[in-house]
Amino acid sequence: MTSAAAFRHAMRRVPTGVTVVTTLKEGEPRGITVNAFASVSVDPPSLLICINREARSYLFISSSRVFCVNVLAGDQRRLAEHFSGKVRDRQFAEIAYATDATGAPVLGGTLAHFDCELAHEYQFGSHSIFIGHVVSCGARPGSPLGYFNGGFHDFGIHVE
Ligand SMILES: Cc1cc2nc3c(=O)[nH]c(=O)nc-3n(C[C@H](O)[C@H](O)[C@H](O)COP(=O)(O)O)c2cc1C
Question: What stretch of H or E contains 56?
Fold first, then answer.
């Protein structure tokens, strides 16, 4: 097996989008920055996210059984930093959001959102893979925020 350092070093060369996965903690909005996100299947519409079981969000997603994947636009780096930080209380105090089907926050100004009901959890290593049934989604014009080589970048590719 390869070393953790070699694995991390090679993973830095993998470009990804950046999302904020929102959920509910006893009815209150919560969010976590996540780049481990992928489509699973079209029939049924489903996706996966990988969440560290030591993250507070892990418990909130497992207990509320709903989450919404918000795909960030190139000018939303501040949101990615906010939701990867250590804000404990009133995490949404200055954040604009709406809701869709599940009640999990849909952040303003994002490129797309996928509102999900938790369908399944697979535990592996430090993380859990959550499979979500997409119950509603939407897409808007803009350019994506990317993560590459340990930093955020506006991909600079605008789609209508
Ligand atoms: C670009 C980026 C991507 C991240 N992706 C993930 C991820 O896919 N899964 C995860 O569990 N944590 C990920 N994190 C780390 C969490 O955002 C971070 O640990 C967060 O503070 C956890 O918050 P919580 O304990 O309130 O849930 C990522 C952080 C950054 C900056």
Answer: helix 56-64
pTM exceeds 0.85: yes
**Would you say residue 138 lies in a domain?**
yes
pLDDT digits (tens, 9 = 90+) for 28-87: 999 999 999 999 999 999 999 999 999 999 999 999 999 999 999 999 999 999 999 987
> Which amino acid residue places its CA nearest to atom 31 of ligand 1?
84
For residue 16, the ligand 1 atom closest to its alpha carbon is: 1
- Is residue 13 in some structural domain? no
- Rounded CA-CA distance 95/74 in Å is 17
Which residue range is the domain that position 93 belongs to? 20-151
